[in-house]
Amino acid sequence: MTTEKTDWYPMWKELGLDIEKHDQLLAVLPDIFKKVFIDSQKNRPKGMGFFDFVVGDIHGIRVSELKKAKEEGKKIIGTFCLYIPDEIIFALDAIGVGLCGGTNFSNFASEDLLPINICALIKSALGFGIGNICPYYAITDILIGETTCDGKKKAWEVIGEFKPIYIVETPQCKTRPQAKAHFLEELKGLIKKLEEVTGNKLYAENLRISMEKIKKKREQLKRLYETRKADPVPISGKDALLVSQIAFYDDPERQIQMVGKLADELEERVNKHVGVMEKGSKRILVSGTPMAVPNWKIHDLVESKGAVIVAEETCTGTRYFDSEYEIKGNTIDELLEVIADRYLGINCACFTPNEGRKEDITKLVKDYNVDGVLLYTLNFCQPYDIEAIRLEKQLKEEGIPVLSISTDYSSEDEGSLETRIEAFLEMLN
Ligand code: BJ8
Protein backbone atom coordinates (compact mmCIF):
# COMPACT_ATOMS: atom_id res chain seq x y z
CA MET A 1 0.00 0.00 0.00
CA THR A 2 1.60 3.26 -1.13
CA THR A 3 1.27 6.42 0.96
CA GLU A 4 1.45 8.90 -1.95
CA LYS A 5 -1.51 11.26 -2.37
CA THR A 6 -3.50 10.40 -5.46
CA ASP A 7 -6.33 12.18 -7.22
CA TRP A 8 -9.24 9.75 -6.84
CA TYR A 9 -11.83 11.90 -8.59
CA PRO A 10 -11.54 10.14 -11.98
CA MET A 11 -12.15 6.80 -10.23
CA TRP A 12 -15.10 8.10 -8.21
CA LYS A 13 -16.65 9.60 -11.38
CA GLU A 14 -16.14 6.36 -13.25
CA LEU A 15 -17.91 4.52 -10.43
CA GLY A 16 -20.88 6.87 -10.85
CA LEU A 17 -20.65 8.56 -7.44
CA ASP A 18 -22.61 11.72 -6.71
CA ILE A 19 -19.45 13.82 -6.47
CA GLU A 20 -21.06 16.79 -4.75
CA LYS A 21 -22.60 14.72 -1.98
CA HIS A 22 -19.51 12.54 -1.72
CA ASP A 23 -17.38 15.68 -1.26
CA GLN A 24 -19.65 16.78 1.56
CA LEU A 25 -19.24 13.41 3.25
CA LEU A 26 -15.45 13.39 2.94
CA ALA A 27 -15.29 16.99 4.14
CA VAL A 28 -16.68 16.14 7.59
CA LEU A 29 -14.93 12.83 8.26
CA PRO A 30 -11.36 14.09 8.86
CA ASP A 31 -12.50 16.55 11.54
CA ILE A 32 -14.53 13.92 13.36
CA PHE A 33 -11.65 11.47 13.14
CA LYS A 34 -9.14 14.03 14.41
CA LYS A 35 -11.36 14.95 17.35
CA VAL A 36 -12.14 11.37 18.35
CA PHE A 37 -8.80 9.65 17.72
CA ILE A 38 -5.97 12.15 17.53
CA ASP A 39 -6.71 15.15 19.76
CA SER A 40 -8.21 13.22 22.64
CA GLN A 41 -5.72 10.36 22.97
CA LYS A 42 -2.17 10.15 24.25
CA ASN A 43 0.42 7.46 23.90
CA ARG A 44 -1.40 5.55 21.17
CA PRO A 45 0.36 2.42 19.85
CA LYS A 46 2.61 3.18 16.87
CA GLY A 47 0.88 0.40 14.93
CA MET A 48 -2.28 2.52 14.80
CA GLY A 49 -0.52 4.67 12.20
CA PHE A 50 -1.50 2.19 9.49
CA PHE A 51 -5.16 2.19 10.52
CA ASP A 52 -5.25 6.00 10.74
CA PHE A 53 -3.87 6.10 7.23
CA VAL A 54 -6.51 3.66 5.96
CA VAL A 55 -9.33 5.76 7.41
CA GLY A 56 -7.70 8.95 6.15
CA ASP A 57 -7.94 7.53 2.65
CA ILE A 58 -11.14 5.59 3.23
CA HIS A 59 -12.50 5.82 -0.31
CA GLY A 60 -9.15 5.83 -2.10
CA ILE A 61 -6.51 3.13 -2.14
CA ARG A 62 -8.64 0.16 -1.10
CA VAL A 63 -11.28 1.07 -3.70
CA SER A 64 -8.57 1.38 -6.34
CA GLU A 65 -7.32 -2.08 -5.40
CA LEU A 66 -10.82 -3.46 -5.79
CA LYS A 67 -11.18 -1.68 -9.12
CA LYS A 68 -7.93 -3.21 -10.34
CA ALA A 69 -8.99 -6.66 -9.15
CA LYS A 70 -12.27 -6.21 -10.97
CA GLU A 71 -10.48 -5.23 -14.18
CA GLU A 72 -8.50 -8.44 -13.82
CA GLY A 73 -11.74 -10.40 -13.72
CA LYS A 74 -12.43 -10.77 -10.00
CA LYS A 75 -15.93 -10.17 -8.67
CA ILE A 76 -16.65 -7.96 -5.68
CA ILE A 77 -19.29 -9.20 -3.26
CA GLY A 78 -21.05 -6.89 -0.78
CA THR A 79 -22.26 -8.33 2.54
CA PHE A 80 -24.05 -7.00 5.62
CA CYS A 81 -23.79 -9.76 8.22
CA LEU A 82 -21.25 -12.00 9.93
CA TYR A 83 -23.38 -14.97 8.94
CA ILE A 84 -22.22 -14.73 5.32
CA PRO A 85 -18.93 -16.66 5.40
CA ASP A 86 -16.02 -14.80 3.85
CA GLU A 87 -14.35 -18.19 3.48
CA ILE A 88 -16.71 -19.10 0.63
CA ILE A 89 -16.41 -15.74 -1.14
CA PHE A 90 -12.60 -15.73 -1.12
CA ALA A 91 -12.39 -19.44 -2.03
CA LEU A 92 -14.14 -18.57 -5.27
CA ASP A 93 -11.46 -15.98 -6.01
CA ALA A 94 -13.90 -13.16 -5.32
CA ILE A 95 -13.48 -10.36 -2.77
CA GLY A 96 -15.93 -9.70 0.05
CA VAL A 97 -16.60 -6.24 1.48
CA GLY A 98 -18.80 -5.41 4.46
CA LEU A 99 -21.21 -2.60 3.58
CA CYS A 100 -22.92 -1.72 6.87
CA GLY A 101 -23.26 2.04 7.37
CA GLY A 102 -22.37 3.97 10.51
CA THR A 103 -23.48 7.55 9.79
CA ASN A 104 -26.78 9.30 9.25
CA PHE A 105 -25.21 11.43 6.51
CA SER A 106 -26.52 8.96 3.92
CA ASN A 107 -30.12 8.94 5.19
CA PHE A 108 -31.17 11.58 2.65
CA ALA A 109 -31.21 8.84 0.01
CA SER A 110 -33.12 6.20 1.95
CA GLU A 111 -35.64 8.21 4.01
CA ASP A 112 -38.34 8.18 1.34
CA LEU A 113 -37.95 4.45 0.85
CA LEU A 114 -38.07 3.33 4.48
CA PRO A 115 -40.36 4.03 7.44
CA ILE A 116 -39.02 6.27 10.21
CA ASN A 117 -38.86 3.44 12.73
CA ILE A 118 -36.06 1.48 11.07
CA CYS A 119 -32.65 1.17 12.72
CA ALA A 120 -29.89 3.61 11.80
CA LEU A 121 -27.66 0.86 10.41
CA ILE A 122 -30.17 -0.14 7.74
CA LYS A 123 -31.03 3.46 6.84
CA SER A 124 -27.36 4.29 6.54
CA ALA A 125 -26.38 1.23 4.49
CA LEU A 126 -29.23 1.69 2.03
CA GLY A 127 -28.63 5.41 1.80
CA PHE A 128 -24.96 4.88 0.98
CA GLY A 129 -25.84 2.58 -1.87
CA ILE A 130 -28.87 4.28 -3.31
CA GLY A 131 -27.45 7.79 -2.83
CA ASN A 132 -24.31 6.88 -4.85
CA ILE A 133 -21.92 8.07 -2.19
CA CYS A 134 -20.18 4.79 -1.35
CA PRO A 135 -17.56 3.57 -3.82
CA TYR A 136 -17.49 0.15 -2.10
CA TYR A 137 -21.17 -0.33 -2.79
CA ALA A 138 -20.76 1.04 -6.32
CA ILE A 139 -18.00 -1.40 -7.16
CA THR A 140 -19.81 -4.54 -6.00
CA ASP A 141 -21.13 -6.99 -8.57
CA ILE A 142 -23.73 -8.45 -6.26
CA LEU A 143 -24.97 -8.03 -2.71
CA ILE A 144 -25.62 -10.92 -0.35
CA GLY A 145 -28.41 -10.34 2.16
CA GLU A 146 -29.66 -12.64 4.88
CA THR A 147 -32.85 -13.24 6.82
CA THR A 148 -31.77 -12.11 10.27
CA CYS A 149 -33.91 -9.19 11.50
CA ASP A 150 -37.18 -8.09 9.87
CA GLY A 151 -35.76 -4.68 8.98
CA LYS A 152 -32.98 -6.20 6.91
CA LYS A 153 -35.28 -8.79 5.32
CA LYS A 154 -37.52 -6.06 3.94
CA ALA A 155 -34.63 -3.72 3.14
CA TRP A 156 -33.31 -6.29 0.66
CA GLU A 157 -36.50 -5.88 -1.36
CA VAL A 158 -35.90 -2.13 -1.52
CA ILE A 159 -32.23 -2.34 -2.39
CA GLY A 160 -32.92 -5.16 -4.86
CA GLU A 161 -34.51 -2.60 -7.15
CA PHE A 162 -31.14 -0.91 -7.54
CA LYS A 163 -28.64 -3.76 -7.50
CA PRO A 164 -28.58 -7.56 -7.89
CA ILE A 165 -28.99 -9.21 -4.49
CA TYR A 166 -29.01 -12.83 -3.39
CA ILE A 167 -30.54 -13.79 -0.04
CA VAL A 168 -29.21 -16.49 2.25
CA GLU A 169 -32.01 -17.76 4.46
CA THR A 170 -30.45 -17.89 7.89
CA PRO A 171 -32.36 -20.10 10.33
CA GLN A 172 -34.37 -18.54 13.17
CA CYS A 173 -33.94 -21.27 15.81
CA LYS A 174 -30.31 -22.14 15.30
CA THR A 175 -30.02 -24.70 18.10
CA ARG A 176 -32.43 -27.14 16.45
CA PRO A 177 -30.77 -30.02 14.57
CA GLN A 178 -32.63 -29.17 11.36
CA ALA A 179 -31.27 -25.61 11.52
CA LYS A 180 -27.79 -26.82 10.65
CA ALA A 181 -29.06 -28.94 7.76
CA HIS A 182 -31.00 -25.93 6.52
CA PHE A 183 -28.04 -23.57 6.87
CA LEU A 184 -25.81 -26.05 5.01
CA GLU A 185 -28.31 -26.14 2.15
CA GLU A 186 -28.37 -22.36 2.12
CA LEU A 187 -24.57 -22.23 2.01
CA LYS A 188 -24.65 -24.62 -0.95
CA GLY A 189 -27.14 -22.28 -2.61
CA LEU A 190 -24.77 -19.39 -1.97
CA ILE A 191 -21.90 -21.35 -3.51
CA LYS A 192 -23.98 -22.09 -6.60
CA LYS A 193 -24.91 -18.43 -6.97
CA LEU A 194 -21.34 -17.25 -6.48
CA GLU A 195 -20.04 -19.87 -8.93
CA GLU A 196 -22.43 -18.39 -11.47
CA VAL A 197 -21.38 -14.81 -10.68
CA THR A 198 -17.64 -15.49 -10.63
CA GLY A 199 -17.50 -18.14 -13.35
CA ASN A 200 -15.26 -20.14 -10.98
CA LYS A 201 -15.86 -23.53 -9.47
CA LEU A 202 -15.41 -24.23 -5.78
CA TYR A 203 -12.86 -26.93 -4.96
CA ALA A 204 -12.21 -28.38 -1.53
CA GLU A 205 -8.56 -27.34 -1.72
CA ASN A 206 -9.46 -23.68 -2.41
CA LEU A 207 -12.01 -23.71 0.38
CA ARG A 208 -9.45 -25.11 2.80
CA ILE A 209 -6.86 -22.46 1.82
CA SER A 210 -9.46 -19.72 2.19
CA MET A 211 -10.53 -21.07 5.60
CA GLU A 212 -6.92 -21.00 6.76
CA LYS A 213 -6.55 -17.39 5.63
CA ILE A 214 -9.78 -16.07 7.16
CA LYS A 215 -9.11 -17.98 10.35
CA LYS A 216 -5.65 -16.39 10.57
CA LYS A 217 -7.22 -12.97 10.14
CA ARG A 218 -9.63 -13.62 13.00
CA GLU A 219 -6.79 -14.98 15.15
CA GLN A 220 -4.86 -11.72 14.88
CA LEU A 221 -7.90 -9.78 16.10
CA LYS A 222 -8.25 -12.25 18.94
CA ARG A 223 -4.61 -11.67 19.87
CA LEU A 224 -5.26 -7.94 19.94
CA TYR A 225 -8.29 -8.44 22.18
CA GLU A 226 -6.32 -10.68 24.55
CA THR A 227 -3.99 -7.77 25.33
CA ARG A 228 -6.99 -5.70 26.42
CA LYS A 229 -7.30 -7.94 29.45
CA ALA A 230 -4.25 -6.19 30.93
CA ASP A 231 -4.30 -3.31 33.37
CA PRO A 232 -3.19 -0.74 32.29
CA VAL A 233 -4.82 -1.51 28.99
CA PRO A 234 -2.36 -1.11 26.07
CA ILE A 235 -4.90 0.17 23.53
CA SER A 236 -8.03 2.27 23.86
CA GLY A 237 -11.47 0.90 23.04
CA LYS A 238 -11.76 3.45 20.24
CA ASP A 239 -8.59 2.25 18.55
CA ALA A 240 -9.52 -1.41 18.94
CA LEU A 241 -12.94 -0.68 17.45
CA LEU A 242 -11.36 1.11 14.51
CA VAL A 243 -9.14 -1.90 13.81
CA SER A 244 -12.06 -4.30 13.71
CA GLN A 245 -14.17 -1.93 11.59
CA ILE A 246 -11.42 -1.83 8.97
CA ALA A 247 -11.19 -5.63 8.99
CA PHE A 248 -14.57 -5.72 7.23
CA TYR A 249 -13.33 -4.21 3.98
CA ASP A 250 -9.54 -4.37 3.84
CA ASP A 251 -7.49 -7.12 2.18
CA PRO A 252 -7.37 -10.15 4.54
CA GLU A 253 -3.65 -10.82 3.92
CA ARG A 254 -2.77 -7.24 4.79
CA GLN A 255 -4.98 -7.42 7.87
CA ILE A 256 -3.16 -10.54 9.04
CA GLN A 257 0.10 -8.66 8.70
CA MET A 258 -0.91 -5.27 10.13
CA VAL A 259 -3.17 -6.45 12.96
CA GLY A 260 -0.46 -9.02 13.75
CA LYS A 261 2.16 -6.27 13.92
CA LEU A 262 -0.07 -4.18 16.17
CA ALA A 263 -0.72 -7.21 18.40
CA ASP A 264 3.08 -7.74 18.70
CA GLU A 265 3.43 -4.16 19.87
CA LEU A 266 0.54 -4.48 22.31
CA GLU A 267 1.94 -7.70 23.78
CA GLU A 268 5.23 -5.88 24.33
CA ARG A 269 3.36 -3.01 25.97
CA VAL A 270 1.62 -5.43 28.29
CA ASN A 271 4.97 -6.96 29.27
CA LYS A 272 6.33 -3.49 30.04
CA HIS A 273 3.09 -2.34 31.74
CA VAL A 274 2.62 0.47 29.24
CA GLY A 275 -0.96 1.67 28.92
CA VAL A 276 -3.07 4.30 27.20
CA MET A 277 -5.09 4.94 30.34
CA GLU A 278 -4.03 4.99 33.94
CA LYS A 279 -3.88 1.68 35.76
CA GLY A 280 -7.13 1.18 37.63
CA SER A 281 -9.30 3.07 35.10
CA LYS A 282 -12.89 1.81 35.10
CA ARG A 283 -13.21 -1.07 32.65
CA ILE A 284 -16.33 -1.23 30.49
CA LEU A 285 -17.73 -3.98 28.28
CA VAL A 286 -19.99 -2.79 25.47
CA SER A 287 -22.55 -5.33 24.31
CA GLY A 288 -25.15 -5.04 21.59
CA THR A 289 -25.61 -3.99 17.99
CA PRO A 290 -22.64 -3.68 15.63
CA MET A 291 -20.81 -0.37 15.19
CA ALA A 292 -19.94 0.33 11.57
CA VAL A 293 -17.49 3.06 10.44
CA PRO A 294 -17.72 5.93 11.45
CA ASN A 295 -19.88 5.11 14.44
CA TRP A 296 -17.52 5.90 17.32
CA LYS A 297 -20.09 7.74 19.44
CA ILE A 298 -20.34 5.55 22.55
CA HIS A 299 -16.64 4.74 22.69
CA ASP A 300 -15.82 8.41 22.49
CA LEU A 301 -18.32 9.36 25.18
CA VAL A 302 -17.15 6.65 27.60
CA GLU A 303 -13.43 7.18 27.08
CA SER A 304 -13.67 10.96 27.26
CA LYS A 305 -14.87 10.41 30.84
CA GLY A 306 -11.68 8.57 31.81
CA ALA A 307 -13.03 5.01 31.65
CA VAL A 308 -11.81 2.49 29.10
CA ILE A 309 -13.74 0.08 26.93
CA VAL A 310 -11.90 -3.23 27.23
CA ALA A 311 -14.08 -5.41 24.99
CA GLU A 312 -17.11 -5.33 22.72
CA GLU A 313 -19.56 -8.20 22.64
CA THR A 314 -20.77 -7.12 19.19
CA CYS A 315 -20.31 -8.19 15.59
CA THR A 316 -17.61 -5.54 15.32
CA GLY A 317 -16.05 -7.12 18.41
CA THR A 318 -15.79 -10.59 19.90
CA ARG A 319 -18.60 -12.09 17.82
CA TYR A 320 -16.38 -11.47 14.78
CA PHE A 321 -13.64 -13.83 15.88
CA ASP A 322 -15.01 -16.08 18.64
CA SER A 323 -16.39 -19.54 17.95
CA GLU A 324 -13.27 -20.53 15.99
CA TYR A 325 -12.91 -23.84 14.14
CA GLU A 326 -10.33 -26.49 13.64
CA ILE A 327 -10.05 -27.20 9.94
CA LYS A 328 -10.98 -30.87 9.51
CA GLY A 329 -12.06 -32.71 6.40
CA ASN A 330 -11.06 -33.15 2.79
CA THR A 331 -14.30 -32.68 0.91
CA ILE A 332 -16.41 -29.59 0.35
CA ASP A 333 -19.21 -31.12 2.40
CA GLU A 334 -16.91 -31.85 5.35
CA LEU A 335 -15.43 -28.36 5.26
CA LEU A 336 -18.84 -26.75 4.97
CA GLU A 337 -19.89 -28.59 8.14
CA VAL A 338 -16.97 -26.99 9.95
CA ILE A 339 -17.97 -23.58 8.59
CA ALA A 340 -21.65 -24.04 9.48
CA ASP A 341 -20.79 -25.08 13.05
CA ARG A 342 -18.66 -22.00 13.52
CA TYR A 343 -21.17 -19.53 12.16
CA LEU A 344 -24.09 -21.06 14.01
CA GLY A 345 -22.05 -20.47 17.15
CA ILE A 346 -22.35 -16.68 16.74
CA ASN A 347 -24.87 -15.53 19.33
CA CYS A 348 -26.84 -12.80 17.58
CA ALA A 349 -30.13 -11.54 19.04
CA CYS A 350 -31.90 -12.28 15.77
CA PHE A 351 -32.08 -15.95 16.81
CA THR A 352 -34.42 -17.52 19.31
CA PRO A 353 -33.57 -18.70 21.87
CA ASN A 354 -30.25 -16.91 22.26
CA GLU A 355 -29.15 -17.92 25.74
CA GLY A 356 -25.53 -18.18 24.60
CA ARG A 357 -25.21 -14.40 24.48
CA LYS A 358 -25.78 -14.05 28.21
CA GLU A 359 -23.12 -16.72 28.82
CA ASP A 360 -20.73 -14.89 26.49
CA ILE A 361 -21.24 -11.61 28.35
CA THR A 362 -20.73 -13.19 31.77
CA LYS A 363 -17.53 -14.83 30.56
CA LEU A 364 -16.23 -11.58 29.09
CA VAL A 365 -16.99 -9.72 32.33
CA LYS A 366 -14.82 -12.23 34.17
CA ASP A 367 -12.03 -12.58 31.59
CA TYR A 368 -11.62 -8.83 31.03
CA ASN A 369 -12.12 -7.91 34.67
CA VAL A 370 -15.00 -5.64 33.71
CA ASP A 371 -16.42 -3.07 36.16
CA GLY A 372 -19.63 -2.38 34.28
CA VAL A 373 -21.55 -3.45 31.17
CA LEU A 374 -23.00 -0.98 28.73
CA LEU A 375 -25.84 -2.54 26.77
CA TYR A 376 -25.91 -0.70 23.47
CA THR A 377 -28.90 -0.86 21.13
CA LEU A 378 -29.65 1.09 18.01
CA ASN A 379 -33.12 2.63 18.23
CA PHE A 380 -35.78 0.44 16.60
CA CYS A 381 -33.62 -2.69 16.68
CA GLN A 382 -36.19 -4.98 18.24
CA PRO A 383 -34.05 -8.13 18.72
CA TYR A 384 -31.34 -6.32 20.71
CA ASP A 385 -33.82 -4.01 22.43
CA ILE A 386 -35.86 -6.93 23.76
CA GLU A 387 -32.77 -8.85 24.86
CA ALA A 388 -31.40 -5.76 26.62
CA ILE A 389 -34.30 -5.72 29.11
CA ARG A 390 -33.74 -9.34 30.15
CA LEU A 391 -29.98 -9.05 30.11
CA GLU A 392 -30.04 -5.96 32.30
CA LYS A 393 -32.15 -7.79 34.87
CA GLN A 394 -30.06 -10.98 34.77
CA LEU A 395 -26.72 -9.20 35.00
CA LYS A 396 -27.89 -6.98 37.85
CA GLU A 397 -29.06 -10.07 39.72
CA GLU A 398 -25.50 -11.33 39.46
CA GLY A 399 -24.21 -8.07 40.89
CA ILE A 400 -22.84 -6.76 37.59
CA PRO A 401 -23.52 -3.02 37.12
CA VAL A 402 -25.35 -2.32 33.85
CA LEU A 403 -26.31 0.75 31.87
CA SER A 404 -28.70 0.20 28.99
CA ILE A 405 -28.58 2.72 26.17
CA SER A 406 -30.69 3.07 23.03
CA THR A 407 -29.46 5.60 20.54
CA ASP A 408 -28.82 6.28 16.85
CA TYR A 409 -26.16 7.99 14.76
CA SER A 410 -27.20 11.57 15.47
CA SER A 411 -25.45 13.80 18.00
CA GLU A 412 -28.72 15.15 19.41
CA ASP A 413 -28.78 12.87 22.44
CA GLU A 414 -25.07 13.17 23.24
CA GLY A 415 -25.71 15.57 26.14
CA SER A 416 -28.14 13.27 27.89
CA LEU A 417 -26.02 10.19 27.15
CA GLU A 418 -22.99 11.92 28.59
CA THR A 419 -24.87 12.65 31.81
CA ARG A 420 -26.08 9.05 32.11
CA ILE A 421 -22.65 7.60 31.34
CA GLU A 422 -20.98 9.93 33.83
CA ALA A 423 -23.45 8.93 36.56
CA PHE A 424 -22.93 5.24 35.72
CA LEU A 425 -19.14 5.51 35.91
CA GLU A 426 -19.32 7.36 39.22
CA MET A 427 -21.33 4.58 40.83
CA LEU A 428 -18.85 1.86 39.80
CA ASN A 429 -16.72 0.97 42.77
S1 BJ8 B 1 -25.00 -11.55 13.20
S2 BJ8 B 1 -25.94 -8.46 14.80
S3 BJ8 B 1 -24.28 -8.55 11.64
S4 BJ8 B 1 -27.69 -9.63 11.98
S5 BJ8 B 1 -29.08 -3.27 14.39
S6 BJ8 B 1 -29.84 -4.35 11.12
S7 BJ8 B 1 -30.20 -6.60 13.91
S8 BJ8 B 1 -32.44 -3.88 13.43
S9 BJ8 B 1 -26.94 -5.93 12.37
FE1 BJ8 B 1 -26.30 -8.05 12.63
FE2 BJ8 B 1 -25.63 -10.32 11.48
FE3 BJ8 B 1 -26.77 -10.34 13.86
FE4 BJ8 B 1 -24.31 -9.50 13.62
FE5 BJ8 B 1 -31.33 -5.49 12.33
FE6 BJ8 B 1 -30.79 -4.64 14.75
FE7 BJ8 B 1 -30.52 -2.99 12.73
FE8 BJ8 B 1 -28.85 -5.06 13.00
Question: Can I get a quick summary?
Answer:
The protein is an alpha/beta fold.
Notes on the structure:
This protein is an alpha/beta fold and 429 residues long. It has one domain (9-427). Helix content is 52%, strand content 10%. The chain is built from 18 helices and eight strands. It has a four-stranded parallel beta sheet, with helices on both faces. The termini are far apart. It binds Double cubane cluster (BJ8). Residues 81-83, 119, 121-122, 148-149, 151-152, 289-290, 315, 346, 348, 350, 378, 381, 383-384 line the site of Double cubane cluster (BJ8).
Distinct helical segment count: 18
Q: What is the beta-strand fraction?
A: 5-15%
Fraction of residues in helices? 40-55%
Give the rounded overall mean pLDDT: 96
Labels describing this entry:
52% helix, alpha/beta, single chain, binds Double cubane cluster, four-stranded parallel beta sheet, 429 residues
Topology:
Elements: H1 9-14, H2 19-39, H3 48-56, H4 61-71, E1 76-79, H5 86-91, E2 95-98, H6 120-130, H7 135-139, E3 142-146, H8 150-159, E4 165-168, H9 177-198, H10 204-227, H11 237-246, H12 252-272, E5 283-288, H13 297-303, E6 308-313, H14 318-321, H15 332-344, H16 355-367, E7 372-378, H17 382-397, E8 402-407, H18 414-427
Parallel strand pairs: 1-2, 1-3, 3-4, 5-6, 5-7, 7-8
The structure holds Double cubane cluster (BJ8).
Double cubane cluster binds at residues 81-83, 119, 121-122, 148-149, 151-152, 289-290, 315, 346, 348, 350, 378, 381, 383-384.
